[in-house]
Design brief:
Layout lengths: L8 H5 L6 H4 L33 H11 L6 E4 L1 H13 L6 E4 L6 H8 L3 E4 L10 H7 L4 E7 L11 H11 L4 E5 L14 H4 L3 E6 L12 E4 L2 H10 L7 H10 L2 H26 L4 E4 L6 E6 L2 H10 L5 E2 L9 E5 L3 H12 L3
Parallel strand pairs: 2-3, 2-4, 4-5, 5-6
Antiparallel strand pairs: 1-7, 6-7, 8-9, 9-11, 10-11
Helix pairs in contact: 4-5, 11-13
GO molecular function: histidinol-phosphate transaminase activity
InterPro entries: Aminotrans_II_pyridoxalP_BS, Aminotransferase_I/II_large, HisP_aminotrans, PyrdxlP-dep_Trfase, PyrdxlP-dep_Trfase_major, PyrdxlP-dep_Trfase_small
Cofactor: pyridoxal 5'-phosphate
């Protein structure tokens, strides 16, 4: 069977919207898209009187080179969130189909499913926050069309071993798409799973420029997947998803100079992560610092609420993750600059 047999038949059959930019390119006098002929005010908005390319060729090529895939295997949109939403809408029939997740994990998988009126089936992570492959497979039903796994996981930071992901990929063939969210993979010591998409047509990989590439405000995310899946999602994607200034910012970040700077920051974050884990673990009132391969640490406290308020009073905002399953005593602390991290430690040590 084709991976598209898992998609909604009405999506496969629909006539997609054809934008003016898709139907024609080139020319000197552009009178086909009802755009303004005048440039907007301000140098920063140069070129913004024209609609951007739906999938800008230069950006697609740069991302394909970065991730080691063909351009036909790549969809770029407004953060990973847009790709998650498109996948749910393309593969889950409202009121009939479902996704499967392993809490505690990134919340947008469930949000997108519920907006689509797709069921959310849970196979929680083990007590040590490792992925229980047997539990995931036992939770599968014929309604499940998408299985999301996050590695390194947000909000805990652990990575999923290759053997576990391979087993899921092999077992889910013909049953569901396996979507591996690698938003934090640049901070991990182990490589990612992009190579799986050539071996398994039902495997997709989510990547983003928000974290390691310092472009959270530009909202550039990518789905890497089988050509047919990418082509299907392009049919239902809004016609002009990427603002021109965001594309320009991404191309600058992906230049040789930008990549060198990003890799320097990644190395600094990994060193600070190791230092902060050791230092925080020694603070009285800290129960545990979870092992992390991301750019954050999840920390268990005797009184997480009091610590959150103490940090906030000092002008330091961390993430309260106590609402997540099995994290009722935890805060998530992003790794900042050395100076920012030192300030966090100063405040934590005041609890003595």
């Amino acid at each position: 069977m084709s991976v598209l047999d898992l998609a909604r038949p009405e999506i496969r059959a629909m006539q997609p919207y054809s934008s003016a930019r898709m139907e024609a390119s080139g020319g000197q006098i552009l009178l086909n898209a009802n755009e303004s002929a005048w440039a907007p005010f301000g140098e920063a908005a140069a070129g913004c009187n024209r609609y951007p390319d739906p999938q800008p060729a230069a950006l697609v090529d740069a991302l394909a080179a970065l991730y080691g895939v063909r351009r036909e295997q790549l969809l770029v949109g407004r953060g990973s969130d847009e790709a998650i939403d498109l996948l749910v809408r393309a593969f889950c029939r409202a009121g009939e189909d479902a996704i499967l997740i392993q809490p505690p994990t990134f919340g947008m998988y469930a949000v997108c499913a519920r907006i689509q009126n797709a069921a959310v089936i849970e196979a929680p992570l083990a007590a040590d926050f490792t992925l229980d492959v047997d539990a995931v497979l036992a939770a599968m039903t014929p309604a499940v069309k998408l299985v999301f796994v996050c590695t390194p996981n947000n909000p805990t930071g652990q990575v999923i071993p290759l053997a576990a992901v391979e087993r899921l990929a092999q077992t889910l063939a013909g049953r569901a798409l396996l979507i591996v969210d690698e938003a934090y993979v640049e901070f991990a010591d182990a490589p990612g799973f992009v190579g799986l998409i050539d071996r398994h047509e039902h495997v997709g990989i989510l990547r983003t420029l928000s974290k390691a590439w310092a472009l959270a405000g530009a909202r550039i995310g990518t789905l890497l997947a089988n050509d047919a899946v990418i082509a299907l999602l392009r049919r239902i994607m809004p016609p002009y998803p990427l603002p021109l200034p965001c594309v320009d910012a991404a191309l600058a970040a992906l230049s040789p100079e930008g990549q060198a700077q990003a890799r320097g920051h990644i190395a600094e974050i990994k060193a600070e992560r190791a230092r902060m884990r050791t230092a925080i673990a020694a603070v009285p009132g800290v129960r545990e610092v979870l092992p992390s391969q991301a750019n954050f640490l999840a920390v268990r406290f005797d009184d997480a609420g009091a610590i959150y308020q103490r940090l906030l009073a000092a002008g330091i905002v961390v993430r309260d993750v106590r609402r997540y399953p099995n994290l009722g005593d935890a805060l998530r602390i992003t790794i900042g600059t050395a100076e920012e991290n030192a300030r966090v430690l100063d405040v934590l040590e005041q609890t003595r």
